[in-house]
Amino acid sequence: MKKLILIRHGKSSWDMPIEDHERPLTNKGIKNSNIVFDQIQNKLPERFLIWSSTAKRTHDTAKIFNEVLNIPQELTVLKQELYTFDANHLSNTIKNCKENVPSLIIFGHNNAITDFVNTFGDKFIDNVPTSGVVILQFEDENWNTIKKGTVTETLFPKDLINAN
Q1: Distance of CA 56 to the CA centre of its chain
Q2: Mean pLDDT value of segment 123-130
Q3: In the beta sheet, which residues pair with residue 45?
């Protein structure tokens, strides 16, 4: 059995004339990430591997996750191939995970995340929002054979903010 936790980076800024890869988080992106990660603790598996896109906004979102959950920053592996907006590319990266990894946490981008969830999950999600989390469970024993999983949880900022 494999557990996949997909996390879309926090809201990022378009205010500065910089390359997409270098765009920073906005204050709202930081705040919403903190709100979501405060709620994720009891949903995390015992053992997991963390991968993040190399994009600044995504890596910074992973840093917030690590801070909130007291996870050493060096446990997050930066992967250039996760700087993708394509679900097939995301799928290929996930399927290359070693089979001895029971659970994988990925910090990435849309449309890749939403399209992946709608291809591999059992529940249609119109859009995984910034700072959004989708947890999928697969019955498969190997990452390279995952086909259809079950969406066991979604954590979206607007749902958590509206609940308070």
Answers
A1: 14
A2: 97
A3: none
Distance CA 92, CA 98 (A): 12
Q: How many helices (H) and strands (E) does the chain have?
A: 5, 6
Beta bridge partners of 8: 108
- Token couple for 33: 């990430």
Provide the residue range defining the domain that includes 47.
2-102+143-163
Number of domains in the chain: 1
Tell me the pLDDT band of 163, cut-offs 50, 70 and 90.
low
pLDDT tens-digit series, residues 70-98:
999 999 999 999 999 999 999 999 999 99
Phi, psi of 160 (to 5 degrees): -75, -35
Separation CA 121–CA 133 (nearest Å): 13
The Cβ-side half-sphere exposure at 52, using a 13 Å CA radius, reads 22
Which pLDDT score is estimated for 14? 86
The length of the chain, given as a count of residues: 164
